[in-house]
Amino acid sequence: MQRIVIVGGGAGGLALATQLGKRLGKKGLAEITLVDAARTHVWKPLLHQLAAGSFDTHAEEIEYLAQARWNHFKFRLGSLVGVDRHNKTVQLAASHDEAGREITPAQQLGYDTLVIAVGSQTNDFGTLGAAEHTIKLDSPQAAKRFNNRLINACIRAQTVPRSAGSGRLTVAIVGGGATGVELAAELHAAARVLASYGLDNIHPEKDLQIVLIEAAPRLLAQLPERLSESALRELRKLAIEVHTNEKVVEVTEDSLKMASGKVVSSSITVWAAGVKAGDFLTALGGDAPLECNRLNQLLVNGNLQSTRDPNIYAFGDCAACQQPDGTWVPPRAQAAYQQAMYLARALPRLSAGETAPPFVFKDQGSLVSLSEYSSVGSLMGSLTKGSFFVEGQLAKLMYWALHKQHQLALGGIKKTALITLSEMIDRTHRPRIKLH
Do residues 263 and 291 share a domain? Predict the structure, then answer.
């Protein structure tokens, strides 16, 4: 029986394991194993809401063991540390609990086909002090850590006198991409809710100062300019301080220094600028490592096979895939989802020695959520030439629909309907933000 090992339980890896489990595992045609260092999955585009406390993780998290049982694949806890290409094995590090006690020992798994989908991590570009004094919003654990610091800082701020003209609590966000913009709006909404739950001295405009810093000339630099302008307009309505064309060169415990000489004070600093793949990818394969680019991404061909080993595939943010027109597949959630669906169809054919057409990314546009205030986006499709702009309630509905698409891929229609009903019921009795 063919052994397919998928490393990485993000949106793409979990969707691929689920689809292959239904198509191959259920029929006994292959043994599919998903490996991840965590026990649960959270959809990455929701991390800004998790950081602000806007949703309950227990309602959103997917248990890997349960998902595996329901969809005919296996789950193994561990993080990838090595690949033996000659013997076709992957090495997993030992896992430990909060007290340092070993949960699982170091182990190895055999494979016939290996798929690497470990995602990306925030790139601080070696900025002085960034590693020590910022929270990088690239995992549920980091988002929860930020939320704890935010709530503690708000409670602490209740007892600290505010000097005239200054906010008692300043959150600085480095990076004006989708994550930074969404987090800024979500924090403003969270401050309003905190006031209604007893922290009545935390006023979004007076007592919580949100600062967004972007090195490019405009926010959302990778997206259409009209979308950028609309997002900036909405943020200014919320009195969020926006600095563009400002490169951060040093981060201290309570401030950020710019290349221009400007200094911004900060109680909590979030780094949301730039992404790269994990450094460990450059050493995979030992004496014959797999080929990587300068961002540590594994180079793959049109079938998402690594350039140096056809039995090893990679996709999502950790892979660099060049399109026929010379462009590269962008590190976005929709790209990972499309690649997962492609591999679910192509892997059985390629493993059987057949050919499959190359992967082609179809840009469906972009949506940016500005919390409860608005959403903006540009959509692309066969009904239009180019793209068309959406905002307001329509864009919010479409952003919600993207999340439902992810849930459908993992749980099907019935389960997604039940989850949606549960979310509606929860809103009637749960706090609107997480307070602990």
Answer: no
| Residue 345 maps to a domain | yes
360 in a domain, yes or no?
Answer: no
Opening angle at CA 37, ends 36 and 38, nearest 5: 90
Model confidence pLDDT, tens digit, residues 175-231? 998 889 888 888 887 776 666 555 555 555 567 889 999 999 999 888 778 888 888
Burial of 144: CB neighbours in 10 Å, binned 0-12, 13-18, 19+: middle
How do residues 62-88 score in pLDDT, each as one tens digit? Answer: 899 999 999 999 999 999 999 999 999
User: Count of domains in the chain?
Assistant: 3
Tally Cβ neighbours within 10 Å of residue 393.
10
User: Does residue 433 lie within any of the structural domains?
Assistant: no
The reply to whether 115 and 135 lie within a common domain is no
Q: Do 145 and 253 belong together in one domain?
A: yes
Range 371-375, long-range pairs (CB < 8 A, 24+ positions): 371/52, 371/54, 371/182, 371/185, 371/186, 371/188, 371/189, 372/189, 373/185, 373/188, 373/189, 373/234, 373/237, 373/238, 374/234, 375/399
As a whole number of angstroms, the distance between CA 17 and CA 12 comes to: 9
CATH number, domain at 165? 3.50.50.60
Name residues whose C-beta falls within 8 Å of residue 194's C-beta, 6 or more positions apart in sequence.
154, 202, 433
Helix ranges (H only) for 53-177 are 57-60, 64-71, 130-133, 140-157
Residues 246, 251, 256, 262: is their CA dihedral positive or negative?
A: negative
Query: If you compute the radius of gyration of the chain from its CA atoms, what whole number of angstroms results?
Result: 22
5, 351 Cβ separation under 8 angstroms: no
What is the spatial distance between Cα 25 and Cα 169, in angstroms, rounded to a whole number?
52
* 255 and 298 co-located in one domain: no
Position 431 in a domain = no
In this structure, the dihedral spanned by the alpha carbons of residues 254, 131, 61 and 35, taken in order and rounded to 10 degrees, is -170
Q: What is the pLDDT of residues 6-40, one digit of tens each?
A: 999 998 999 999 999 999 999 999 999 999 999 98
Residues 388 and 339 in one domain: no
The span from the CA of 56 to the CA of 426, in Å, is: 10
Is there a single domain that holds both residue 147 and residue 200? yes
By DSSP bridging, strand 319-321 and strand 298-300 are: parallel
- On whether the CB atoms of residues 179 and 220 are closer than 8 A, the answer is no
**Domain around 141:** 130-273
**CB 5 within 8 Å of CB 35:** yes
Burial of residue 107 (number of CB atoms within 10 Å: 0-12, 13-18, 19+) = middle
Strands 169-174 and 241-243: unpaired
